[in-house]
Amino acid sequence: MQCHPRPSPKYLDNRLKLRTPWDFGLSVFRPYIADHDALLTKCFELDWSRTKVERLIKDDEQRAKLKEICRKNYKYFRESYKYMAATDPQQNLLCITNIAYSDFI
Question: What is the value of pTM for the model shown?
């Protein structure tokens, strides 16, 4: 059993407030799920299923090669999307407009 002393009290005006050390489990970030390989694979497969690559590339072998290249770089695609969506939101939506996408390309 380990015991730790309580943090020293911090006085604010006439009120006594006990300062609690910051803890991830108690913060607003608690429900955040960090990226891991299984999650990235699941996200990639969902995103890939929503593309129109089959219309553009008819050859299965070339499409498989493209899918593998995209899978290797998916983390970078996803981070770029998150950055762009956060820096140019449309009202309360985190998305990328056609203009912002064209500028990026």
Answer: 0.65
